[in-house]
């Protein structure tokens, strides 16, 4: 409703908005085609029983590929593993981030700023580079090839950004209600749980979903830290599917990719508006 | 500064009803009773970070100076800077450094950054259906799991794949992309996958430019390019800096995409530093050497992070 009205609000220069339109549309459509080509292949091949590398319309669209991968071994076990690892890690990240963000957002202390800078600094570190030492360390302390070990590392890797995001959301919650709760004698735990978190519910949702999407798609961490096939999440099992089969069944691989990608695409839709409109990553991206 | 002022104002307000006697030196908003405990919620996060990020970082520094191998961990001994000397004398390492630079410049600085800015600008001028469609496609490429993206782009660039089919349709000569120009293929793949991030950042930045400014420049007769150079870019320069830093850092740690598409091959011609590191540590079992390379990558990453923090300094 509000969007189509926008050009009229700027009546003074009505021509400017419309003049560039055809050119901009054409350019964008060209980009759209380039971005769509690999995706079109994915969709068409998943419906094609005899899919090849080349994009083509299936002769007779079928769901055979989906029913072929719809088994415990190929789909359910890896998806369940992904859900356990990423779900557990997300829960841990969100709880730790909410707890940590609260004092960082509300109180002042000399170490708060260095602490925040360290957090921000570690959001930027290339996690890939830490993986070789993490592997060596996990072998030492016998956490290698355990799902909880992998989940703990994933949680730690996502935590800095989650704290940062959570703190920014918390900063925008007004303090008046909280002060009333304090006056009534509530502890910080009650205040956080009963007053602040409900008020920033959508913010917590964004942090949780964003964290989960990042972990669901992460390949390198479980690839390094998990070894036994029955423990692997979908991100790694799809790779063995792709890498080790003599003749790759492209149709089945495409069907599995669709199944594996759908949850994160759906989750992204849920948060896209909040993440997209205020795309203030780190609250820092102002003109 | 403003936060401090607001804090003290709040303190005087809340101190009154709570009945505590406000000591003159403390601009504090809560009763002092909770003071030591109120930082307790930081503990779980701090412990997790110290154990699982701090620990590996320290360990990384530790074993980068040893000859640790995958087999026989006990026999690792201190070798000083030998791993680093080995790295700088190793043609494969220098190859990886050059390829990482190419990959970063082509896919991040030139590709994602420029295309992201162009898309953000175009999206503002386009009609609504086109805007929605293009935005959705670009973002889908970004949200897709890395491994799926790598697999899709493998089929796209493969000799018998979609790209060559399109080229043939346009009567252009086909190329064996993954064999002939693997580093270019993976760079384009990274552009496909990562542009949405820049697009979103620049969309937010462009939306923050007051329209009067660009309109008055237009009235003064400034052309598109001059407006971009003299008005738009200076006004969003902080976003440009932020975006370049974050893009570069993300690109430096790309592994899955390259691993799925080429495994660093053929003949190491798309072997960027993360892939090289993995190869040394696990295929060749040289954990110590692989970690030394990881440490170099971390130092580069840390330098970029430090620059990024300086850019944001006033905001924290």
From TrEMBL, chain A:
<comment type="similarity">
    <text>Belongs to the binding-protein-dependent transport system permease family.</text>
</comment>
<feature type="transmembrane region" description="Helical">
    <location>
        <begin position="79"/>
        <end position="102"/>
    </location>
</feature>
<dbReference type="GO" id="GO:0055085">
    <property type="term" value="P:transmembrane transport"/>
</dbReference>
<feature type="transmembrane region" description="Helical">
    <location>
        <begin position="204"/>
        <end position="227"/>
    </location>
</feature>
<keyword id="KW-1133">Transmembrane helix</keyword>
<feature type="region of interest" description="Disordered">
    <location>
        <begin position="1"/>
        <end position="20"/>
    </location>
</feature>
<feature type="transmembrane region" description="Helical">
    <location>
        <begin position="148"/>
        <end position="166"/>
    </location>
</feature>
<feature type="transmembrane region" description="Helical">
    <location>
        <begin position="114"/>
        <end position="136"/>
    </location>
</feature>
<dbReference type="InterPro" id="IPR035906">
    <property type="entry name" value="MetI-like_sf"/>
</dbReference>
<feature type="transmembrane region" description="Helical">
    <location>
        <begin position="247"/>
        <end position="271"/>
    </location>
</feature>
<keyword id="KW-1003">Cell membrane</keyword>
<keyword id="KW-0813">Transport</keyword>
<keyword id="KW-0812">Transmembrane</keyword>
<dbReference type="InterPro" id="IPR050901">
    <property type="entry name" value="BP-dep_ABC_trans_perm"/>
</dbReference>
<dbReference type="Pfam" id="PF00528">
    <property type="entry name" value="BPD_transp_1"/>
</dbReference>
<dbReference type="GO" id="GO:0005886">
    <property type="term" value="C:plasma membrane"/>
</dbReference>
<keyword id="KW-0472">Membrane</keyword>
<protein>
    <submittedName>
        <fullName>Carbohydrate ABC transporter permease</fullName>
    </submittedName>
</protein>
<feature type="domain" description="ABC transmembrane type-1">
    <location>
        <begin position="79"/>
        <end position="271"/>
    </location>
</feature>
<dbReference type="InterPro" id="IPR000515">
    <property type="entry name" value="MetI-like"/>
</dbReference>
């Amino acid at each position: 409703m509000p969007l189509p009205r926008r050009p009229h609000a700027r009546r003074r220069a009505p021509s400017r908005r419309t003049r560039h339109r055809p050119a901009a549309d054409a350019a964008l459509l060209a980009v759209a085609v380039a971005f769509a080509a690999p995706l079109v292949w994915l969709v068409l091949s998943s419906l094609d029983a005899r899919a090849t590398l080349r994009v083509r319309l299936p002769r007779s669209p079928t769901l055979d590929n989906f029913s072929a991968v719809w088994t415990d071994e190929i789909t359910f076990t890896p998806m369940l593993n992904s859900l356990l690892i990423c779900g557990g890690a997300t829960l841990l990240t969100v709880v730790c981030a909410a707890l940590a963000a609260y004092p960082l957002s509300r109180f002042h202390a000399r170490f708060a700023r260095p602490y925040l800078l360290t957090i921000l600094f570690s959001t930027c570190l290339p996690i890939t580079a830490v993986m070789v030492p993490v592997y060596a360390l996990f072998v030492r302390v016998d956490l290698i090839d355990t799902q909880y070990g992998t989940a703990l590392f994933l949680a730690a890797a996502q935590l800095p950004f989650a704290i940062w995001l959570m703190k920014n959301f918390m900063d925008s919650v007004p303090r008046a209600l909280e002060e009333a709760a304090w006056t009534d004698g509530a502890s910080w735990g009650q205040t956080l749980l009963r007053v602040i978190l409900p008020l920033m519910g959508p913010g917590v949702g964004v942090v949780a979903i964003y964290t989960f999407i990042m972990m669901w798609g992460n390949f390198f961490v479980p690839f390094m830290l998990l070894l036994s096939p029955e423990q692997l999440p979908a991100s790694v099992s799809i790779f063995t599917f792709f890498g080790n089969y003599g003749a790759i069944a492209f149709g089945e691989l495409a069907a599995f990719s669709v199944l594996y990608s759908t949850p994160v695409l759906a989750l992204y839709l849920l948060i896209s508006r909040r993440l997209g409109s205020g795309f203030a990553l780190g609250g820092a991206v102002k003109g | 500064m403003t936060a401090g002022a607001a804090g003290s104002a709040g303190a005087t307000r809340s101190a009154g009803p709570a009945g505590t006697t406000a000591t003159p030196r403390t601009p504090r908003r809560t009763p002092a009773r909770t003071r030591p405990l109120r930082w307790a919620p930081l503990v779980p996060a701090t412990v997790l970070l110290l154990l699982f990020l701090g620990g590996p970082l320290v360990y990384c520094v530790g074993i980068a100076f040893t000859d640790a191998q995958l087999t026989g961990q006990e026999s690792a001994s201190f070798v000083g800077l030998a791993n680093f000397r080995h790295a700088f004398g190793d043609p494969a390492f220098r190859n990886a450094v050059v390829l990482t630079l190419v990959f970063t410049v082509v896919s991040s600085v030139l590709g994602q950054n420029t295309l992201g800015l162009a898309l953000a600008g175009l999206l503002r001028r386009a009609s609504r259906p086109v805007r929605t469609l293009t935005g959705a496609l670009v973002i889908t490429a970004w949200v897709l799991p890395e491994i799926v993206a790598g697999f899709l782009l493998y089929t796209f660039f493969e000799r018998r794949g979609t790209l060559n089919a399109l080229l043939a349709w346009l009567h252009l000569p086909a190329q064996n992309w993954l064999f002939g120009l693997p580093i270019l293929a993976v760079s384009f793949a990274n552009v496909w996958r990562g542009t949405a991030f820049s697009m979103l950042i620049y969309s937010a930045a462009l939306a923050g430019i007051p329209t009067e400014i660009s309109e008055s420049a237009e009235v003064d007769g400034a052309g598109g390019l001059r407006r971009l150079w003299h008005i738009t870019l200076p006004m969003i320069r902080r976003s440009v800096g932020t975006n370049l830093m974050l893009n570069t850092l993300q690109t430096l740690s790309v592994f899955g995409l390259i691993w799925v598409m080429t495994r660093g091959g053929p003949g190491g011609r798309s072997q960027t530093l993360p892939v090289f590191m993995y190869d040394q540590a696990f295929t060749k079992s040289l954990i110590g050497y692989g970690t030394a390379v990881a440490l170099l990558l971390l130092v580069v990453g840390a330098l970029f992070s430090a620059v990024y923090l300086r850019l944001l300094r006033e905001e924290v």
